Amino acid sequence: MRKLNYKLMSLAVAALAFTACEEDGLGSTGEVEAAMGEMYVNAESTVSQMYKNVDEALQTFDFAASPSTPITIDGATFDRDPNDPNKYILDYGIGTQTRGKTIAGALEVTMANGSDYLVPGTTANVALVNYTENDQPLSGGFLAENKGNNEYSLDITNFSVQDNPSDNEDPVTLTINNSSKLITWVNGSATPGDFTDDVYDLAGGADDNDPNANDIVATYTDDEGDYSLNINLVSPLRLDNSCQYRLLQGEIELMISTTIDPNPLTFNKALIDFIAGDGANSDGCDNFFEIDLENTDTQAKVNTTRQFNGF
After folding, report:
1. Fewer C-beta neighbours within 10 Å, C or N terminus of the chain?
2. Could you tell me the pLDDT band of residue 22, with boundaries at 50, 70 and 90?
3. Whole-model pTM?
């Protein structure tokens, strides 16, 4: 148990998109579960930034130009694959400094049902190729589809992030096995090419008629074993490009379980709340969120506040 706590504490310091914040009433008990929640949100924030970059690239690129004209997105080069007319590459090369981190590798975007991303039915299948952030490897991909009426589906498959401890132990890994979400544009859809006014909600896309359906299923793995995370978006995440952190509000519920014996968990439920209108700014543009941990059998509860760097 001490070993797991140590590794997860290192994760809280070294996570790709998070920094630790002063905690309220949370000591060693619950730190494991809170760190799992942070690593999951780190994975979601990474996908969110990738989706933002791909969305901007597909709205900006001149698909009719021959030969194609490369553009720059997030410090990387976006261009058509010369060997596949339906594939486009966002290439960070051997290392690009952007958003306070070093990104290397590429995102490969394969279009289907046309290349105009703004036409309903068009899909963009995004795969990570030799992709790292601050030397931490990421893998997997996601599929975005224009559903019409300012809605896009976003399905994530086998998307993994890692944290390599400094003591040469095995890496901690979190994998989003599958995720079903729906993006609904609130503002900005009528001004393609202008991304400053973009606002959209990210909601769960699971089958509401299936009581066992979860919006997201994820697995956390370290050398102690596997932990299963069944995750639902309790209230939509509001993304707003006018805010430097982008994420304004939303709630995520995690149910945590494991077959490890003896069970090292103190809590089996976490509610992550990106509070609307938190901190000094009434518009919600702050980078704090709360994690409420609960043991649903004993009703024991504890709360902590953390920071994030952006979505």
Report:
1. N
2. very low
3. 0.87
